[in-house]
Amino acid sequence: MALPKIEDVRNLSDADLAEKIAEAKRELFDLRFQRATRQLEKPHLFKHTKHRLAQLLTVERERQ
User: Fold this and answer.
1) Which cysteines are joined by disulfide bonds?
2) How confident is the model at residue 63 (pLDDT cuts 50, 70, 90)?
């Protein structure tokens, strides 16, 4: 899975952006839970999810 491009995020509508932010936060929570219970098989997903969340939050902040 490649890291997402910022241009893809900038093309989202405000509603889609808010939905993607909530989705990324939930996924990060699930990954933390899996790591705590030693069920995480792909630790690189932390980096990808955090990167995607940072991009989403950056674009949200730019629009304010």
Assistant:
1) none
2) very high
DSSP symbols for 32-63:
HHHHHTT--S-THHHHHHHHHHHHHHHHHHHH
Q: Is there a domain that residue 1 lies in?
A: no
Q: Which residue has the tokens 């929570």?
A: 29
Q: What is the CATH number of the domain that holds 49?
A: 1.10.287.310
What's the pLDDT tens digit per position in 10-36?
999 999 999 999 999 999 999 999 999
Q: For residue 15, give its domain range.
A: 6-63
Q: How many CB atoms lie within 10 A of CB 50?
A: 13
Our count of domains for the chain comes to 1
Q: How many Å is the maximal CA-CA distance in the chain?
A: 39
